[in-house]
Amino acid sequence: MKIKDVTELEVFKYAHQLTLEIYKVTNNFPKEETYGLVSQMRRSAASICANLLE
């Protein structure tokens, strides 16, 4: 099987789904965590896909 695009990989699909779930879950976090824990969790989840794309 020839992969033309990284977005076709299962690992990328799982990473993208994880990012979406993290965004949903962190919507319910306290507002005082917006620039702390929420920001860190969202950035780290999004970086998985970004690193795979590189």
From TrEMBL:
Family matches, as Gene3D superfamilies: 23S rRNA-intervening sequence
Coiled coil, from the record: none
InterPro entries per the UniProt record, alphabetical: 23S_rRNA-intervening_sequence (IPR012657), 23S_rRNA_IVS_sf (IPR036583)
Any single Pfam family the record assigns to this protein: 23S_rRNA_IVP
NCBIfam families attached to this UniProt entry: four helix bundle protein
Protein name stated in the entry: Four helix bundle protein
Species: Deferribacter autotrophicus
